[in-house]
Amino acid sequence: MASTVIGPGITIEGEVIAEDEVVVQGTIRGKLTSQDAVIIEAGATIEADVSAASVVVGGSVTGDVQAADRVDLQAGGRLVGDVKAARLTIADGASFKGNVDMDV
Amino acid sequence: MADSEAIIGQGTFIRGNLRGDGDLSVAGRIEGAIEVRGEVVFEGTSIIQAEVTAGRIVVRGALAGDLHAQDSIVLEEGCRVAGDLQAPRIRIDQGALYRGRIEMGEPSAAAPARKVAQQARPTPQAAQRPAPQPVRAAPERPAPAPRPARAPKAVEAAPPAPPAAPAAPPPAPAVPRVGRVRPAPIAEAARAEVSPATSSDDQPPPPVVPALKKKSKGAVRKRGEST
């Protein structure tokens, strides 16, 4: 089905709960949950706890990130918060501040 | 949907406020408030419980809440809407279910512009009307009247109106016309012959009348010559 795209000019203050993939180019404040992947593109601003099957961070995230599968912090991405995921990658050029829990 | 700046998928639920500058396409659920400058399309699968403000609103799904649009609101077939509508233009298709109050033609946007246009039209007409009036008034026309009066004086000074001049200088007013066109004096003579009674009665100094009577002239000359 059609995925969800939060465009660059969009600001959501509240809770976003999705069953499908969510692509964020704008701003979300509150809470973001998805059964599928969450892709936070460069330029996006997330001030929320993110919970999804997988999370790709290319923009700015402030909040805890929890993923059933994996979290990818791309170059240029900025993450401030705790990460809980089975796998975590942090690319060169990314900034990260927080705790990591990989269920070891 | 791909053209929209933001897409809320069918499996997506948003609780809260959604604001934006661009267009929005919603196939999922939203509870809260939506405020977008562009166009908002609520697809058939959407379930909305929110107050919506946008440039243009198209509803195909279920919606509960007030709708405010700067441009227009369209309730398409299959939609279920409960709430107040406010927009300059509203369209409700057959097969749409709606309950609420409608307020159309918000004067803030469209109406004043039309009024201004209407006012602007009459003003140029008014401007045009005064212009022709001075032409009609034709202040120049009264001017020609004095001219003949002046002209005869010049004619009097110069006696190129030889035949009638000696007998009666007052007939001069007819002379300048004679100078313009030669056949004219004949016509004037005819006029004078026809009008003498009335003109003489109305205007005491109608010099033209006596001078143009040929027979009388001849009689006068003969008399003068004879005498």
Short description:
Chain A is an all-beta fold and 104 residues long. Chain A contains no helices and 12 strands.
Structure, explained:
- By secondary structure, chain A is an all-beta fold.
- In chain A, 0% of the residues lie in helices and 65% in strands.
- With 227 residues, chain B is an alpha/beta fold.
- Chain B folds into two domains: 6-108, no CATH class; 146-217, no CATH class.
- Helices cover 34% and strands 30% of the residues of chain B.
- The longest helix of chain B is centred in the C-terminal third of the chain and has 13 residues, at 214-226.
- Chains A and B meet through strand 1 and strand 2 of A and strand 1 and strand 2 of B.
Radius of gyration of chain A: 12 Å
Q: In this structure, how is the largest beta sheet of chain B organized?
A: 13 strands, parallel
Helix count of chain A equals: 0
Instruction: Please write the string of helix (H) and strand (E) elements of chain B.
Output: EEEEEEEEEEEEEHHHHHHHHH
Report strand % of chain A.
over 45%
Oligomerization state: heterodimer
Give the helix/strand class of chain A: mainly beta
Q: Which pair of chains has the greatest number of interface residues, and how are they split between the two chains?
A: A-B, 25 and 24 residues
Q: Poorly predicted ranges of chain A (pLDDT <50, ≥5 residues)?
A: none
Proportion in helices of chain A: under 10%
Number of strands of chain A: 12
* Major sheet attributes of chain A: 12 strands, parallel
